[in-house]
Design goal:
Blueprint: E1 2-7, E2 13-15, E3 18-20, E4 22-26, H1 33-39, E5 49-53, E6 56-58, E7 69-74
Parallel strand pairs: 1-7
Antiparallel strand pairs: 1-4, 2-3, 5-6, 5-7
């Protein structure tokens, strides 16, 4: 199945062609967000990511479906 992944802020990658902020990833049927994070080498960062599938906040156990749209947004904190 094919998943569109939008990378936000610090997850975006700079390439010779500019900033890469959107990927199309092929995963096996019934793959989860955890599987996607593994594919993107982001395991261990899931506690610091807001994961949104088709405009709904989800956790890493969310099963993905063909044509899903996933936004990976790093959690940012600051202040005193």
């Amino acid at each position: 199945m094919s998943i569109t992944v939008k990378l936000h802020t610090s997850l975006q990658k700079k390439t010779s062609h500019g900033v890469q902020n959107c990927l199309v990833i092929t995963l096996p049927d019934r793959a989860t967000l955890f599987d996607l994070l593994t594919e993107l080498n982001l395991i261990g960062r899931d506690q610091n990511l807001l994961m949104v599938v088709n405009h709904r906040v989800c956790d890493s156990t969310q099963v993905l479906h063909d044509s899903d749209s996933v936004d990976l947004i790093p959690v940012i904190s600051g202040g005193d």
